[in-house]
Amino acid sequence: MRTTLRAIALAALAALPLGGCALGQSPGGDVAEGSLASKGSLDGVTLTVGSKEFTEQLVLCEITAVALESVGAQVKRSCGMSGSNTVRNALTGGSIDMYWEYTGTGWITHLKQTKPINDPRQQYEAVAKADLAQSGIRWLAPAPANNTYAIATTNEKAAELGVKTISDYAALAKKDAKQAAFCGAAEFFGRNDGWPGVKKTYGFDLPRSAVAELALGAIYSSIDKSSPCTFGEVFATDGRIKALGLTVLEDDKRFFAVYNPSLTVRKQVMDRSPQLADIIAPISAALDDEALRGLNAKVDVDGETPEQAARDWLRAKGFIG
């Protein structure tokens, strides 16, 4: 049964077209009030919500748009812009009013800092303070989800090998390199905050025969088959983790940078509609790793549209009616 379910999941992942909402598309329509209605009204306010092009961002764009519509806003969608810099420039240039950015991306990519801050609260506070001062961008309350680099294996292999943390993995690598065989993408192997840093921080190495460089999309199926690797690089909130039954190892030395999503909003917009912070806060608080993995899987595995996944989640949480 496990093999069959995984085969179905992998086939679905391969067959699905890239999902998303077209730039400027406004599915909109009437959205029944839910618990967000008690947080404030945006009647008569028009807002433009943007996002990057990958699944998680498309879902976050729709969650935001539908939530704002439920409290009276007229929402224009610019979901699916290509690349972090493109959507960031749209925000700072005033083409959009808000989008979800990741704290580590804001700190390293947009603010050009070279050292990530590994404590989530400190990283958020640092990027929020600096970005407001430098660019007039407000970072609303961050979600607990952390879409960072991670190392994963199958649930079965994690149990069989007794590996729960990256420290456990490092001990395995020293003992049995073949069992610790690792797959990663070229970028991960070349970044100091990727494979070189992991090995240095956790004090291990692997022979070249136990390391395979693959396209990012191929890593998940390779881990699932335990060939050519038992462990591999993943992104912590990827829906395929849930679909394939993978275990994400705990980064017990907190090496990887923190990438908590936060809705970034132009200061002028917040000054006009300060209630945005209260409206978004409960949504952000509910977006933990499990929630985002589930939402991503709804799109990437089950074939739902980002809007459908977003509406169902908001309704299930009681945020909309």
Automatic annotation (TrEMBL):
The keyword Signal applies. This is Glycine/betaine ABC transporter substrate-binding protein. One of its GO terms (cellular component) is ATP-binding cassette (ABC) transporter complex. The keyword Signal applies. Keywords: Signal. The lineage of its organism: Bacteria, Bacillati, Actinomycetota, Actinomycetes, Streptosporangiales. It comes from the Bacteria. Residues 1-22 form the signal peptide. GO terms for molecular function: transmembrane transporter activity. Residues 46-315 form the ABC-type glycine betaine transport system substrate-binding domain.
